[in-house]
Amino acid sequence: MTAPFELTDDSVVVVIGTGAGGGVLANELAQKGVSVVALEAGGRYLPEDYVNDEWESFGQLAWLDPRTTSGDWRVAKDFSGLPAWIVKAVGGTTTHWAGASIRFQDHEWKALTNYGEVEGASLLDWPIDPREMDDYYDKAEKKLNVTRTNGNPGLPGNNNYKVFEAGAKKLGYTEVHTGRMAINSRDDQDRLMCQQTGFCFQGCKWGAKWSSAYTDIPEGEATGNLEVREKAHVARILHNEAGKVTGVEYFDENGDLQMQKARVVCVAGNSFESPRMLLNSASNMFPNGLANSSDQVGRNYMRHMTGSVYAVFDKPVKMWRGTTMAGIIQDESKHDPSRGFVGGYELETLSLGLPFMAAFLDPGAWGREFTTALDEYENMAGMWIVGEDMPQSTNRVTLNSEVKDQFGLPVANVHFDDHPNDIAMRNHAYDRGTAIYDAVGATRTFPTPPYPSTHNLGTNRMSENPEDGVCNKWGQTHDIANLFISDGSQFTTGAAENPTLTIVALAIRQADHIAGELSAGNI
Amino acid sequence: MLSTQTRQLRRLTRRDLLKGTTAFGAFVLGSSYVAGAGGAWATEMDALKPETFATLVQMARDIYPHDRIADEYYVAAVKGYDKPEEVDAITAGIDALNDAARNMHELEYADIGWERDRVDVLRSMEDDPFFQRIRGGLVTGLYNQKAVWPVFGYEGESFSKGGYINRGFDDIAWIG
Ligand SMILES: Cc1cc2nc3c(=O)[nH]c(=O)nc-3n(C[C@H](O)[C@H](O)[C@H](O)COP(=O)(O)OP(=O)(O)OC[C@H]3O[C@@H](n4cnc5c(N)ncnc54)[C@H](O)[C@@H]3O)c2cc1C
Ligand code: SF4
């Protein structure tokens, strides 16, 4: 079914990465008749390959190439070589993701206007109006078959949800439900309904959860317009004397360097690799890297303000049974500065299996304070906190030339310091999360620190003004008309919501734009 | 790894456990065996001195003490250090642990009777790379052994059983 394109074919659009952004963009373009070569560093794994085992699955799917860290975030201490938990595989991190799919709130598209200047933060408004996104959100929800949209029922609440909901109601929260999830609540789109296996983070073996690996990618391939080359690791993007990109160099699965010509290049390697590729593509003409005349490539890294609260009860919960993240409280997601911070946060159910709980409950801890907590694993409930963090120009992905990857390329160093607004918001959320569980009889609670980042945003951000960011409202780089940013790195600000629905909506929108520009002969 | 362990354990009978106790009720059996009190576990040493390994096992339990987890799982968790290329590093680390133990309690580490006194010794070397390496390795070495999961109630893989859709994903009874 795949359409083999020649390396010398300079009419193709090259998409780098096949996750939420790249996988969707590649399919959407292919559906419109555009020829696409998608280059993916990872291999191809499908539901029959996924394993219901946390560490084994991590070894199978996670991005484990070296990275380094700096800054005051605790991840730099606890997981210094693993700043993010993301995937290297066809389908990208949509194999691991939990499926929470919520729209931005209107005010979040205009963070600078609505929050005002925040000291130390590099806040901006998105160059997009919320109403421009309505249709694209509709399309994204349809594609992902999100529960509580398009007539889909919500998922049933599992044990972990029931504890969470009861506590939330006792505190008077009203926007509490089993979430808008990209998980089938009934058999649909040739995919099964959720079987409540509880291994959403390890790849859904039933295919109930949306992942581009087994939806958009094969749909695109079926058109004959999309060729996905797996185990193809892009090293750099090439350009001509006119400053237009002309192709990409990548290492194929044998480690041999290849060059694919291109009419347009779209970068969707997630928020560390995308800026790293641009920076590693520095040339005489662009000594600071591609699309970097603003010096904004790699800056304004956002990871969402996160944390977790786990609680132990005197009776069993068995939180691992059933959907990992089908539960949400939205009451705190509003912007209400009277709480002592700008922006808001969501509370979502979360469960980890025993092996991950041991690694993430309190990294580095040991002794009985820690082990007595794990002893009560069966009686634990858990939630995750996800809120808007402040972009800061010093939170930044740079090249670390001291450390090279398996291809000899400088790796990404990820620097992150919490902003005081992030800390104030996290403390507020810890307090509310603890209160929720206390209200239903928790005997012990754990305000758990952030894990390696799962939401990575902002390192090639959109801006109205070319000096403030890397790309325009279409994800097209300000400097190079035929170079696009197509993943979460184009986010201007993070909003409180899990990002993927918005990444997908932006990819659908970008496909419309690119197809239009191609047929108009503008690129 | 565990299954070979277990097989080795089975091969040893109570009668093999002859030599006197040296460490916390672990028996050093000649030059290449070490066994737990009462024959609960025993393992053949490939490279480390039995005393060294026995102390390492005690250290592992003191770092992540779970009273309902038998010694054999701690043994399995650290058995990977019993190889020639690790001997120097592990021996030096355990020697340092014993030095600290003698300084603080005038006893070898494994001879200290109370866990809290042994933990004091561990705290004193908490930032040492040796301690951190052993601790870090245990996070997966201990908790990723499927055989210990039932102690915590964790059920592991569920796909082959059809998930929990008909097996109690929402069976909590005590919440309103
Ligand atoms: C455990 C977990 C749970 C999550 N849950 C949710 C959730 O419930 N809701 C939500 O909205 N989001 C969730 N996320 C986040 C979500 O997965 C990401 O936001 C989303 O997948 C990011 O899309 P992306 O296109 O930016 O990058 P990715 O999906 O990570 O795709 C990037 C791809 O690019 C490839 N790549 C990188 N560099 C190169 C290179 N040089 N050459 C070739 N290919 C390259 C990578 O291998 C990868 O396949 C979760 C993430 C994790 C880890
Ligand atoms: S709980 Fe549902 S969505 Fe999650 S892995 Fe299982 S079947 Fe898939």
In sequence order, what are the helices and strands of chain A, one letter per element? EHEHEHHHHEHEEEEEHEEEHHEEEHEEH
SS class of chain B: alpha+beta
**What value does the average pLDDT of chain B take?**
85
CATH architecture of the largest domain in chain A: 3-Layer(bba) Sandwich
Mind summarizing the main beta sheet of chain A?
A: 6 strands, antiparallel
Cα end-to-end separation of chain A: 28 Å
Q: Note the beta-strand portion of chain B.
A: 5-15%
Low-confidence stretches of chain B: 1-25
Relative helix content of chain B = 40-55%
- Helical percentage of chain A: 10-25%
Bound molecules: flavin-adenine dinucleotide, iron/sulfur cluster
CATH class of the largest domain in chain A: Alpha Beta
Measured between the Cα atoms of the first and last residue of chain B, the distance is 45 Å
Q: How many strand units of chain A?
A: 17
Greatest interface and its residue counts? Answer: A-B, 42 and 35 residues
CATH topology of the largest domain in chain A: FAD/NAD(P)-binding domain
Compute the average pLDDT of chain A.
Answer: 97
How are the strands of the biggest sheet of chain A laid out side by side?
4-11-12-13-10-16
H/E element string of chain B?
A: HEEEEHHHHHH
Any descriptors?
heterodimer; A: 523 residues; alpha/beta; FAD/NAD(P)-binding domain; Cholesterol Oxidase, domain 2; 2 domains; five-stranded parallel β-sheet; B: 176 residues; alpha+beta; four-stranded antiparallel β-sheet; elongated; disordered N terminus; binds flavin-adenine dinucleotide; binds iron/sulfur cluster
Characterize the structure shown.
The complex is a heterodimer of chains A (523) and B (176). In chain A, 25% of the residues lie in helices and 16% in strands. With 523 residues, chain A is of the alpha/beta class. In chain A, the strands form four sheets. Chain A has a six-stranded antiparallel sheet with strand order 4-11-12-13-10-16, covered by helices on one side. Chain A has a five-stranded parallel sheet with strand order 5-2-1-9-17. A three-stranded mixed sheet of chain A has the order 3-15-14. Chain A has helices at residues 20-31, 54-61, 74-78, 111-115, 130-144, 159-170, 216-222, 270-280, 354-360, 368-375, 420-438, 500-519; strands at 13-16, 36-39, 68-70, 176-177, 226-229, 233-239, 245-251, 257-261, 264-267, 305-312, 328-329, 345-349, 380-387, 396-404, 410-415, 444-448, 483-485. The mean pLDDT of chain A is 97. Chain B is α+β, with helices and mostly antiparallel strands. Chain B has a domain at 48-161. The longest helix of chain B has 19 residues, at 87-105. Chain B starts with a helix and ends in a 24-residue tail after the last helix. Residues 1-25 of chain B have low confidence and may be disordered. Chains A and B meet through helix 6, helix 9 and helix 10 of A and helix 6 of B.
